[in-house]
Amino acid sequence: MRLADCLNSSDIQTLRAIAEHYQLDCSKSSKNALIQSILAHFHNRSFAERVLVAEEDLTFREMITQIMMDKRSYFSREEIVGLIRRMIGEGKEQESACMQRLLREGWLFRLGSTARHIFYVPEDVRKRMRHWLTQRMQQQVQRPVCPPIAYRDENMAIVRDTMTFLSYVARHDCRLTQDGVLFKRNQVAILSLMEIMEQPLGQVGWRFGYGRRFRDYPDRFSLIYDYCYARNLIIEHEDSCKLTCTPQTQEWMEDDDRDKIRDLFKYWRLTYRRPIPTLTTVLQRLSQAVGSDWVLVESLNELLLPHVNDYYYDNKQQVLEKRIYTMLVHLGLLCQGQLADGRAVIRLTDLGREILLEETIVEESPAQVHMPLIIQPNFEILLPGEEIGRLGWDLSQFSDVSKTGVMRIHRITKQSVYRAFQEGWTAKTILEFLGKHAGDQVPLNVVKQIQVWEKEYGKIVLYRSAILECRDQQVAVEMQTIPQIKEHVRGVLEGRYILVPEEQLACIAKHLQQLGYMPDLQL
């Protein structure tokens, strides 16, 4: 709602209170005159500067700033009371006085039914105040004259590494300790395949607060692991101490990468908001102050540190730089750089502006490449990093990842192809997949070897069977004449031992009981 709509929907007592606070010279008995005077006062270009700069109560000024910087156009009473309590502490008299002041000064308008009041922020006022506050914050940070000599932009690496993690779990036997932690050998193998490599944790002190498995894994990988667990992409089997993927993994793989990164950011913000209650405020100010320009970290810290608190053994600066800046870099929303004189700088990436500032970034999409795979005679497959997505997931079903980076390398082995055969792939479907995505440029030796492996597959078949032990051969022969038993017989050993499928044992026992036999079940 715009200010005019809020004023028109308010009663005359509310309008009089606003006019008296700002000492407006107008008729207090005419609603139309009050509305016109209030509109003229709020739309004055110097209104924001006169009100906020002159405000001596820094806590109240900060409260107005948070309301104006918030993207919501209305709040519930509980949300406003929660904001007041965070700013001034609990106390009914203080809460009531602060609420009345916000209404009296026209920052909020209480509209709606008496059963549930909704507090509206006039959209045009919020937009004007937000613009003024953004300019003020941008003036408080310093911008370098020259660009950095080197910078770090991880882009979509965390999405690709999440895919790498899920692919590894789907194709390998991942064992867990009694505490539910991946064995070190699995951790080392997974982390070595990621674009942004980390080391497994050694002997560390306290680690808690930043996620379910933050105490067990390094910062970035713990976020990936916790995200996959929270989205039901992986499941920890307590009985067998194993980690496996769920059917939802394949659906997640098919999602757009930008949707994945948005969901990852949403999960990170929710997780880190518990140890950092002011995280939303910090993100709003950071994005508005930085924008797309390089900003000196030192000056940005001065702007944001007052809004960050210590968290146990993490001091304010560590919380800001390690838990917020660094994690935003991992999420691809921030770039970190270094100037020639060694000073650190940061700026928002295009993705960061799109998510944090809600800007529409029009990217020039390059011509689509229809042959992303390069298959080498040494059984290596080269896959560009940007093409990982579903293609990489399918590729990992009959090959193993040997190297990640700008160019991801898969390798076809006898074991990887054997694994694919067990999942229902055939030499024909594998070669059709490779031909489709490599423009039929599949080396002949690779084709022939995959066909040879298929011929070797299935020479020996392993079954899990149960045994019906008959008292003598006559009973065994009798069993083989009963139709309900005969159809399940796989073989006979030494005349009186009958092999049947293990999964049919309960059904066979039921038939025997119905026929009057009294089987001794040794399960």
UniProtKB/TrEMBL annotation:
Drop me one GO molecular function for this one.
ATPase activator activity
Residue intervals of the Helicase XPB/Ssl2 N-terminal domain: 373-487
User: Which GO terms are recorded in the biological process aspect for this UniProt protein?
Assistant: nucleotide-excision repair
Task: Name the PANTHER family on file.
Answer: GENERAL TRANSCRIPTION FACTOR IIH SUBUNIT 4, TFIIH, POLYPEPTIDE 4
- Protein name stated in the entry: Helicase XPB/Ssl2 N-terminal domain-containing protein
